[in-house]
Design goal:
single chain, globular, 6-stranded mixed β-sheet
Amino acid sequence: MHPVTNFLHVGDLPDGLDLGSSVAIDSETMGLRLGRDPLCVVQLSSGNGDAHVVQMSRPGYDAPNLKRILTDPNVVKIFHFGRFDIAMFLLHLGVLTAPVYCTKIASKLARTYTDRHGLKDVSRELLTIELSKAQQSSDWGAATLSPEQIAYAASDVLNLHALRNRLDAMLVREGRDGLAKACFEFLPHRAALDLAGWEDNDIFAHT
């Protein structure tokens, strides 16, 4: 069995790191408000059991290797509620992340028998994995990340590939895989709308 290793990087991913054709990505911020709360940490996993945790260098955010992955058309970026992360990357890194897959959107389209679509709930049901959220509200802007923070950040990406596989099977079974694909293609633009001032407005609504 492959031993789980969490790699901590400061400022950017190392040169030459190949994470494959699909990468699970999440981020940690000082809060959940765009424009107020800075992007502090970005964590990635190729799905092999390892996680790469990048402590961002603020305020410059000079991370060319990370940006290259985010914009690589041959690498699918897997998120859980990617709308927020993608908007954060657009705001602070200046790149529009694509192509993407969002396990939260997939869950909402496939698991219509429940309204519990948080990562903890979906992971518990589909993967029988219990995720701890103890470090969710911690100081991600600290100069030094604690081992507990690094482990928490890693836990949010280590199982997204497996979750995607389970959800894809459900989407195909229910005939909603095409609809999901269209939603994923629109997601980066939904994030751009958030940044442009339509965060709380549904432009498709009648009113």
